[in-house]
Write a structure and sequence with these properties.
105 residues; alpha+beta; 2 domains; 42% helix
Length: 105
């Protein structure tokens, strides 16, 4: 199982390393952990992107790194704390974000 950084929705991709060459990006199927573990395929991701009026990009289908997952979590937390008016938490999280982003090659 790997995280997939789909816009506006984080999903999981299942990869069978023995069959990795058979499927695009090595993903056999996707799992929506926020919808009772619903299983779906690439065509469902395509449809979701059409609903968002977004052009398909390879990174919307492929597994992402752990660092990318942490960056996404930080962005989501910053947004949530900004909406809640918790400036101190926002400041702390932005500092973590800055440290993490300094590691970008």
């Amino acid at each position: 199982m790997y995280g997939v950084n789909l816009p506006q929705h984080f999903i999981l991709g299942y990869i069978d390393e023995k069959k990795q060459e058979e499927k695009e990006f090595g993903v056999l199927f996707y799992i929506n952990a926020f919808n009772k573990g619903a299983i779906f395929g690439k065509h469902d991701v395509d449809q979701f992107l059409r609903q968002l009026n977004l052009d398909p990009q390879p990174e919307f289908y492929a597994p992402c790194s752990n660092v990318e997952i942490i960056r996404r979590i930080l962005r989501n937390l910053i947004s949530a704390y900004e909406n809640a008016g918790s400036i101190e938490k926002v400041t702390e999280l932005k500092e973590l974000q800055k440290i993490l982003n300094n590691d970008i090659p």
